[in-house]
């Protein structure tokens, strides 16, 4: 049996632990041995994006020491996996980077490309619309609609279509940034909020009940603008936990 190491990013650990639990339950249900390295810390993305490359190198090396022994590294965060899978090339020796990169997966990517999930015995009788976050969209190539002539696959939509009774509607400009961008939302708060408002306007125009995402950082930003919007990480639906208690 291949071992999956569960990487839970900072904001999920502290704000959205339910998403971490959903990821664990789904992987175990699929028959994987899941290990959670308890001394794991931040991947270093905030430091790296803010220009503190030397400090980010320390965290990248710690990440390597924590996770390199496992068959897979899986996380419910496109932005953090993008950091490991793509940007660690600037922070780690080549062999270490290549070893981590080839085994690191965002949960949707893992289910679609490695597990090749073909069926789910769950139902979610609601209308949803998907926010296609930047890192997953442009770096991991997770989810532009197949109806659009862009060089990205529709992995996330394919997974959602396995859920019984769900209805998926595409919002206008679904591939535009929500305005979060990490420290961008702090340094350029007014622009960030306006971008988030535009995203939510497009969502409301769909009349969907739920806004679905694969990066809780984006959902956190949007929920801070309008806490009344129902938002879920895709793994909560796929694990059958959208309406369930922990």
> Secondary-structure element sequence?
EHHEHHEHHEHEHHEHHEHEH
| Biggest beta sheet summary | 4 strands, parallel
What is the overall shape? globular
Name of the CATH class of the largest domain? Alpha Beta
Helices, by number, come to 13
Q: In percent, how much strand structure appears in the residues?
A: 5-15%
Q: Considering DSSP H and I runs of 4 or more, what fraction of the residues is helical?
A: 40-55%
- The CATH topology of the largest domain corresponds to Rossmann fold
Characterize this entry briefly:
By secondary structure, the protein is of the alpha/beta class. It contains 13 helices and 8 strands.
Task: Please characterize this protein's 3D structure.
The chain has 246 residues and is an alpha/beta fold. It has 2 domains: 3-113, no CATH class; 119-238, 3-Layer(aba) Sandwich (Rossmann fold). The chain is 46% helix and 11% strand. The chain is built from 13 helices and 8 strands. The strands form 2 sheets. Strands 2-1-3-4 form a 4-stranded parallel beta sheet, with helices on both faces. It has a 4-stranded parallel beta sheet with strand order 6-5-7-8. Helix 12 (216-225) links the parallel strand 7 (210-213) and strand 8 (231-233). The chain is globular and about 50 Å long. 45% of the residues are buried.
Sequence-ordered SSE layout with sheet pairings:
Elements: E1 3-6, H1 10-14, H2 17-29, E2 33-35, H3 45-49, H4 53-67, E3 72-75, H5 78-85, H6 94-101, E4 104-106, H7 107-115, E5 127-130, H8 134-139, H9 155-160, E6 167-168, H10 184-187, H11 189-206, E7 210-213, H12 216-225, E8 231-233, H13 234-238
Parallel strand pairs: 1-2, 1-3, 3-4, 5-6, 5-7, 7-8
């Amino acid at each position: 049996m291949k071992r999956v190491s569960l990487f839970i990013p900072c904001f999920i650990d502290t704000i959205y632990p339910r998403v971490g639990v959903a990821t664990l339950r789904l992987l175990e249900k699929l028959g994987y041995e899941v290990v959670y390295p308890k001394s794991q810390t931040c991947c270093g993305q905030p430091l790296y994006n803010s220009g503190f490359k030397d400090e980010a190198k320390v965290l990248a090396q710690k990440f390597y020491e924590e996770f390199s022994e496992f068959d897979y590294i899986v996380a419910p965060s496109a932005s953090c996996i993008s950091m490991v899978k793509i940007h660690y090339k600037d922070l780690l020796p080549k062999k270490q980077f290549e070893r981590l990169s080839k085994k690191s997966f965002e949960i949707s990517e893992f289910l679609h490309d490695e597990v090749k999930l073909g069926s789910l015995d769950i139902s979610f009788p609601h209308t949803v619309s998907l926010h296609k976050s930047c890192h997953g969209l442009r770096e991991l190539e997770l989810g532009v609609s197949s109806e659009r002539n862009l060089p990205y696959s529709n992995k996330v939509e394919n997974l959602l279509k396995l859920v019984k009774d769900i209805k998926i509607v595409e919002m206008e400009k679904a591939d535009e940034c929500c305005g979060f961008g990490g420290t961008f939302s702090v340094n350029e708060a007014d622009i960030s909020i306006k971008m988030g408002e535009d995203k939510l306007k497009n969502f409301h125009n769909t009349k969907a009940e739920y806004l679905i995402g694969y990066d809780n950082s984006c959902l956190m930003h949007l929920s801070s603008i309008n806490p009344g919007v129902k938002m879920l990480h895709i793994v909560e639906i796929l694990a059958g936990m959208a309406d369930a208690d922990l």
